[in-house]
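Hey, I'm writing a tutorial for new members on how sequence and structure tokens pair up, and I'd like a real worked example in the thread rather than a made-up one. If someone can provide the structure for the chain below, I'll link this post from the tutorial.
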Amino acid sequence: MTLLDKIREKAVKNPKRIVLPESDDPRTMEALEYILDKGIARIVLVGKEEIKAKVKAKNTKYLEIIDPGRFKDMENYVSEYYELRKHKGMTPEEAREALLNEHVTFGAMLVRHGLADGFVAGANHTTPDVIRAALRCLSIDKTIGVVSGAFLMEVPNSPYGSNGVFIFADCGVNPEPNARQLSGIAVSSADLFEHLVGEEPRVAFLSYSSKGSASGPLVDKIVEAVRRVKEMSPKLIVDGELQVDSAIVPEVARIKCPESEVAGKANVLIFPDLNSGNISYKLSQRLSNARAIGPLLQGFTKPCSDLSRGCSAEDIVDAVAITSVRV
């Protein structure tokens, strides 16, 4: 049984209410059938009531369809969304238009108000669209102070990480995070790993250098981020800067970093920038046939997940299951 199978099983035991705002996407509807019939989550589907005729699931007791145009609390939502956005020049009319027509934003407001526990979107929206909806409607966790996008990676037949399981971050949000942001990304990613995998996280800050083998401003940033993490979370097992082979390959670690607690055993990989993170997860996914679920958005007080626009229905199922168990 894979880790993702175990996460689905865990979700079934305590199904949460998850918003799927992209009812116009056939992959969403395909995933919806599986989610409902397996009891993985209670789904709030955003769309017109007629969409119910397209639901093929045998079990619809966990399904609620909300049409923004007929939503009884829309006036309250419009007023609140206007208050949230008026400092950016939004008018009440624009707030109403957004909630009626931007289903991801409306879904995020449902989560804000507790009508759902989290949301999953991105099948036909860009990552910036999904992140903007979350940033505008959800509260940021002040103890972390930074929003980021992590991927749960499950690499088949791999001896590295935790039997091929890793968290990669940040792969979806911050183009060039500074040391403070990197430290917040690391702490939230370690927490996510422990929550999903149930094992002790070992966090490696990745670089082109291993423990002083090279120098420069980019290495200095990593060293500072590691220092900050140790202040934020003293019990967390963390090290850096580490090259990726030093971080995950025991034989290399014994040569390059023999005294490191993390080297050769890392299961949470923190990338120095968005370029390296995004490229690495996609290379791992395509070259090793790894499952890559995310970006799982971190740093909010309520869980939400982005999807790649190239996602499959299975990816949506897994994102819903993961979002559910994060509650």
